[in-house]
Write a structure and sequence with these properties.
The protein is mostly beta strands. The protein contains one helix and nine strands. The strands form three sheets. A four-stranded antiparallel sheet has the order 1-2-5-8, with no helix packed on it. It has a three-stranded antiparallel sheet with strand order 6-7-9, with no helix packed on it. It is globular, with a radius of gyration of 16 Å.
C-alpha cells in the first residue's frame, strides 16, 4: 500500500514527513501508516497534519513533496503538526498586511 495506508489520511510523496487528515480524527484512534500502527494522542481536525515519523526540532516539514515549514520543537510520530510546533514556510504575512491596508482594515 501507499505511504498513508489508512484511507482517512493522505500523503502524496514518500518524502512527506506528515500526513493530512481527510476526516476529523479522535484521540485514541489507531491508524495504519507505512504499514505500522499509529495511535493519536489528540483530536486532529480535517485538513490538519499528523507526523508520519519523528521530526527533529529545526527539520523541514514536508507535505505533498514540498517544504511547507520547519519544526519549532521535536515532534513525535503520530502527533498533531500545526502552529503550536511548526513555523510556516509560506509567503510572509506582509502580503496579508498589505491587503488589509488596501481594504482599510486595521486588525
Amino acid at each position: 500500500m501507499g505511504v498513508a495506508d489508512d484511507p482517512r489520511l493522505i500523503a502524496l510523496s514518500p518524502r512527506d514527513n506528515v500526513c493530512v487528515a481527510c476526516a476529523d480524527l479522535t484521540a485514541g484512534e489507531r491508524l495504519i501508516v507505512d504499514g505500522a500502527p499509529l495511535g493519536l494522542d489528540a483530536n486532529v481536525a480535517l485538513g490538519h497534519k499528523i507526523a508520519r515519523l519523528d521530526i527533529a526540532a529545526g527539520a523541514d516539514i514536508v507535505k505533498y513533496g514540498a517544504r511547507i515549514g520547519v519544526a519549532t520543537r521535536a515532534i513525535a510520530r503520530g502527533r498533531h503538526v500545526h502552529v503550536h510546533n511548526m513555523k510556516s514556510g509560506y509567503l510572509p504575512t506582509y502580503t496579508l498586511d498589505a491587503a488589509h491596508r488596501y481594504l482599510g482594515r486595521t486588525e
